[in-house]
Amino acid sequence: MRKQLLLFVITCLIAGVSYGQESSMEESDFNHWSIDAGIGLTKPYRNVARDYSTATPDFLSGELGARYMFNEFFGLKAGLIYNNFQAEESTLDFTTKQYQFDIQGVIGVGRLLHFETWTQTFNLLAHGGFGVGVLDYDNISSGDHFGTALAGLTGQIKLSSRVSLNIDGTMGFNVRQNRTWDGRAQRNNEPFVFNGTIGISYYLGRNETHVDWRVRENEYLALMDSRIADLEAQIKKSREEDAQKVKDADDKLNKRVDDLDAQVALLTNADEDVIARLINEGYVNIFFDFNSSKVDKSAADAINVLRTYMMKNAGVSVNLVGYADEKGTEDYNKKLSTKRAEAVADVLAKSGIEKSRLHTEGKGEDASVDESSPNARQLARRVTFSIR
After folding, report:
1. What sign for the dihedral angle of Cα 62, 68, 70, 72?
2. What is the overall mean pLDDT for the chain?
3. What does the alpha-carbon distance between residue 173 and residue 148 come to, in Å, rounded to a whole number?
4. pLDDT tens string 338-369
5. Which of 170, 197, 301, 384 could disulfide-pair with 40, CB 3.0 to 4.6 Å?
6. C-alpha neighbours within 13 Å on the C-beta side of residue 24
7. 367 domain residue, yes or no
């Protein structure tokens, strides 16, 4: 943990200084300075004397500093930190104050990760560096001087062109701290302290925008073009998948039709006399809704049987005889039954049967059914066939 923290701190400082040397004239259109201030809670870890313990969390922690960003990616800041450590109520009492000065490198993580492509309100900074400080104990006259290495993250919320709200978490690792946090004993562990604060950045300068919120238009447009290209590729893929699904559905439907044709053809080839007898004896019928001459999808099987038989037997013709139930006048039922026979003939003609082989007739009311039964009346509304 200690080596990793030191490596991160060194990286922040080197990056800030290095990229600061490469700052171009283009950055002159943006403000670079800010005053950063925050207040919050603190918690020291490890390194307390027996029978002593610090409050969790402890109030108060405060920080004040100045930050200079060379560009939206890297910068430096110098700051003052104040921490006040007090004992928990259940342990022996003590009060210790920490005063600290530090210099840190700053990395614009939000800009490195292109937050600007989805928000102009949120940003993220990482920071790390070194400092020096003093601990002022309540029980001894001499202070405890130390060095420190720090690293942390700052979340930013833009409130205006001049102000952003900051939420910061910083971990400090103290070196050369000779006494425990309470000052009662010699140090026996490597001490850490965590500060969590909320505060503001106030941007200085004559320009409208600080580099914290800068958007490089060329990079932004290139990134957006890339994302649009990805989106178009996804849309194209989705359309291709949808087209394939439609094709598969069509193929499946066509296969079912072909299977039905094959089954009817197989039945016809097996015994055409049986098919002819079934047709002539009234087992092949097409039924209609009340007061309707429309041929619906339920008639497909019967029409297909008749069509297949006539295609196999080119020399035969068929009588199509229409019927109606007892509802309506004799003249009306005659016309309705004729329309039903002609409607079926039209379907057969469109399927490839010569119209000359189809003879239609309307018989009107079918008096052979029980007029008092709705189911019987349904059977009366039909077209039946006979082979000539």
Report:
1. positive
2. 85
3. 5
4. 999 999 999 999 999 999 999 999 999 887 77
5. 197
6. 3
7. yes
Distance CA 388, CA 385 (A): 10
Residue 259, C-beta contacts closer than 8 angstroms, at least 6 positions apart: none
Q: The domain containing residue 306 runs over which residues?
A: 271-387
Structure tokens belonging to residue 345: 């003939």
Q: How confident is the model at residue 77, as a pLDDT? A: 97
Task: Say how many domains are in the chain.
Answer: 2
| Residue reference for tokens 């070194």 | 130
**Quick one: average pLDDT of 232-252?**
82
Contacts of 234 (CB under 8 A, 6+ apart): none
Q: What does the pLDDT read at residue 257? A: 57
What is the reported pTM? 0.56
Tell whether 210 and 275 lie within a shared domain: no
Confidence label for 241 from pLDDT (cuts 50, 70 and 90) = confident
d(C-alpha 279, C-alpha 289), whole Å: 22
Please state, in angstroms and as integers, the Cα–Cα distance from residue 320 to each residue in 76, 128, 290, following that order: 97, 95, 19
CATH number where 127 lies:
2.40.160.20
For residue 244, being part of any structural domain is answered with no
